[in-house]
Amino acid sequence: MIVQVIKQGGKPEWAVVPYQEYLKLIEKAEMLQDVQDYDSAKMALGEGEEELLPETLVNALLEGAHPVKVWREYRGMTHKTLAEAGSISVPYLS
User: Fold this and answer.
1) In terms of Cα–Cα distance, which of 59, 42, 60 is closest to 51?
2) Which of 58, 62, 74, 83 is deepest in the core (most CB within 10 A)?
3) How many angstroms separate the CA atoms of 82 and 77, rounded?
4) What beta strand segments (E) does 9-81 contain?
């Protein structure tokens, strides 16, 4: 790879590379970021900081179902248990 180094004050300030090389570097940087993001997500799953969600839950949210209802049902909670967990009344929750 041919690199032109531009100095300022006797120190390297800029590196000029052919455009095709630049595109390759960008692609590799994006791939590295993808790998790092994957590793972070996998670690968060392993440590219990994140969880995988079933497709049906995601689709229900995307289709506009009420999020409280979707999550309540996903967690297997009744209106009563959710209201108690939130220290609110069932009618207020409804």
Assistant:
1) 42
2) 83
3) 6
4) 11-16
Residue the block writes with tokens 């940087």: 29
Predicted structure pTM score: 0.55
Query: Which of 57, 59, 62 has the alpha carbon at shortest distance from 75?
Result: 57
Q: What does the pLDDT look like over 31-73, one tens digit per residue?
A: 999 999 999 999 999 999 999 999 999 999 999 999 999 999 9
> Measured in Å, how far apart are the chain's first and last C-alpha atoms?
66
Q: Where along the chain do its domains lie?
A: 1-51, 53-94
In angstroms, the Cα distances linking 70 to 5, 9, 31, 37, 67 are 57, 62, 35, 28, 5
What six digits make up the tokens of 7? 């100095």
Q: Render pLDDT for 1-42 as a digit per residue (tens, 0 to 9).
A: 789 999 999 999 999 999 999 999 999 999 999 999 999 999
